[in-house]
Amino acid sequence: MKYRHLGKTGLEVSEIGLGANSFGEPGRRDRPESAKIIHAAIDYGVNFVDTSNVYGKGLSEEYIGHALKGRRDDMLIGTKFGSMRQQGPNNFGGARAYVIRSVEESMARLQTDYIDVYMIHRPDTRIPIEETLRALDDLVRDGKILYTMACNIEAWRITEAHWTNKQNGLTQIAASEFSYSMMARSAEAEMIPACRELGIGVVPYLPLAAGMLSGKALATGTAPAGTRMALEQVTSDRWITPHNLELVRTLDNWAKERGHNVLELAFAWLLAEPIVASVIAGASSAEQVGQNVGAVEWELTSDEYTEVTAILDENPAENSGEYFSTAGYFYEPTEMTPRL
Fold first, then answer.
1. 0.85 cut: is pTM over it?
2. CA-CA distances (angstroms) from residue 163 to 129, 166, 199?
3. Which residues are catalytic?
4. For residue 61, what is the domain's CATH number?
């Protein structure tokens, strides 16, 4: 495993990070499975796990805390706040009261007295971002969190956050996490140039496009078992199209000519971008962790990177969508769900 700095910070994160959004979700990873995956990740040199206070309704954090008993120093924990855990006032968003409460609740579930990287899961569009940023700065000064990141935030918002922090002497956001892969490149228009200019690290999620770039759909044209596509019909319909299958087949053939496969190419292509700090990849088993980690051994040459990018430019994927998810954005004042 190789390691990179998280943006301009001194924190070194593994080039492959472990995504824990499936831990605790119904029909996906239970506690024993999650522990095996986490322990395997540590053994492979992965030192960064990415979760949220809403994944598995909090069970993801609980499972991570259980798995890291006695091994806390082996893994950097990145968790998030802001998404809705329950309806009602002060139960979501970026207000100071919720941020402070959320970090305490996350630390309790994670069985730790500090969080390495605390992330805004999505911006709270109802309030000025300065309130959220000042709360995060206070948490850094108190030692409860060490670094901050943003997730699912537009380029203009991360630019606003950067300059708000700079003008007020607050802790800078170290990195931005968003959807980025060979099949979802919308971040290249604004977000990646903004991060480059501001010195903010890039942490891609969905590097395999929900499993499409694993190559497993090529044989049957259907969603591979255990992937997000197999569990979410809307995701399967989005990615599995004749054009996208042909694109993945082209990429897979290109990789095989060089002794690799499309899954390895998916990671190698992302890591060829120096601003990328860590690529967040989920895993359904310890074996899959090994497959993901093995991809870091392939370093694309500049000519290979240019050649692959040319293929992508000529055959852009269908339905790639925005690099940020607005599914949980908050636009209106809170309304309680009426009791039946």
1. yes
2. 11, 5, 12
3. 55
4. 3.20.20.100
